Amino acid sequence: MAIQFVFSCEHYSNKIPNEYKYLFNNDNEILKTHRAFDFGAAAIFESFANSFYSLAFKGEYSRLLIDLNRYLSSPTLF
Q1: Is the dihedral of CA 20, 26, 28, 31 positive or negative?
Q2: What is the dihedral of CA 22, 15, 26, 34, to 10 degrees?
Q3: Strands 54-58 and 5-9, sheet pairing
Q4: What DSSP string describes 16-67?
Q5: Cα–Cα distance for residue pair 66/52, rounded to 1 Å
Q6: pLDDT computed for residue 13 by the predictor
Q7: Which region holds residue 17: left if phi is over 0, alpha if psi is between -120 and 50, else beta?
Q8: What is the pLDDT of residues 1-59, one digit of tens each?
Q9: Within a 10 A sphere around the Cβ of 60, how many other Cβ atoms?
Q10: What is the per-residue pLDDT for 45?
């Protein structure tokens, strides 16, 4: 069977790798907000990715560390 869909979820997670956690010591609460990830995106992504024969790619870390769908020069980059 050929792959019929490609799913991506750039803002899947609010995780920060251990080596970068110090960057959030003064504002760890921000990782619980929409600025860090998209609420509900992980559940929707998993549902679609598991329901269809597809390729699925997800962002492993918070967009506050690396925003996977914006250029570094983007005015909307967090």
Answers
A1: negative
A2: 150
A3: parallel
A4: --GGGGGGGTT-GGGGGSTTTS-TTHHHHHHHHHHHSSEEEEE--S-TTT--
A5: 28
A6: 97
A7: beta
A8: 676 889 999 999 999 999 999 999 999 999 999 999 999 999 999 999 988 888 999 99
A9: 12
A10: 95
Contacts of 47 (CB under 8 A, 6+ apart): none
Buried b (16+ CB within 10 A) or exposed e, 25-44: eeeeeebeeeebbbeebbee
Whose tokens are 């570094």? That residue is: 72
Residue 58 β-bridge partners: 9
The CB-side HSE value for 20 (13 A sphere, CA atoms) comes to 11
